[in-house]
Amino acid sequence: SDRKRFRALDMLHFLPFLAITIGYFIFFQDVVDFSDETFLVRNEHLWVKMTFAFVFFTTVVAYTALTFVKLNVFRRNIEAQFSYRDTGLELFWVNFIAILFTLSGLVVIIAGAYNAIMFKKVVDTSLLSHIGLTSVAYAISYFGLRQPSLFRSDYALDDEASGTQPEIETQAEDKEEGKEVKQRFTDAEAKALIERLITHMNDERSYLNQELTLSELSAQINLAKHELTELLNVNIGKNFFTFVNEFRLKAVTRRLANPDYDHLTIMAIANDCGFNSKSTFNSLFKQAFGHTPSEYKKKLREGSVVV
To answer: Is residue 114 within 8 Å of residue 123, measured between CB atoms?
Structure first.
């Protein structure tokens, strides 16, 4: 998507680095000693070193925090595109990389501060920095090689649907709060599309596909992805993940109530109904029905719950 390509405006992120680097080579290269042991020596250049330290520290903290914010936004958008959860999709290893980089940086900063306070080189911060950066590089290589592609058509999160996702989420929130929302579909159109969608889900049972995506479902009902996203979020009030998994949960409860399926384990039934993760299934089931699947099945047999 053109919206996700590197833009000239993105160059602003390099301003702190460029300002410090250019300033150093023009004014301070042969004048200021940035070594740890002389860092806090009081002279006319102490302010330069303190400014450098402040910019460096705040930049590391700010961009580390922004990394986690971006990852959270990415994972929230996953549920608008996918009907299942997968560690390969959610990129949890990137959290590990960010944490490893942050900890490495903090160790170097603390060691450098200790050297500065002691006015002598007690700890080799260059060695620590090399070890930290090498560890981060190897971790990126290891996890990166194991990471399945996120940029083939099924995994692309930078398409039209995800591009409008924040706007659609805001529309859904405004509608819940009773605010007037400009909708893509009229009430009649939305009603007809919802009936078509639910009929398709019930007749074709698309939810049985464990890796069903928004792209696949939108193609099946001949609706653009961004239109299906808005229909779900604004008109139905659910994201794609929730919508599909509610059909799966209903299918599971019907089979749990049917003695013909008693020879199957609960997880086997869940797999047959479209779930590909035991933890996701158990979590969603408990959230929907207030009981674990085994408790629910027991109560069915006792007649204390009705499907």
So the answer is: yes
Residues 6+ apart with CB under 8 A from 271: 210
Alpha-carbon distance 113 to 268, whole Å? 57
Q: How many CB atoms lie within 10 A of CB 57?
A: 13
Rounded distance, CA 116 to CA 121, Å? 8
Please state which CATH class domain 161-302 belongs to. mainly alpha
| 32-80 pLDDT per residue, tens | 888 888 889 888 889 888 988 888 888 888 888 898 888 888 877 888 8
Q: Where in the chain is the domain with CATH 1.10.10.60?
A: 161-302
Strand partners, 213: 82
What pLDDT does residue 219 have? 95
Q: How far apart are the first and last CA of the chain?
A: 45
Which residue bears the tokens 């930290």?
132
pTM value? Answer: 0.68
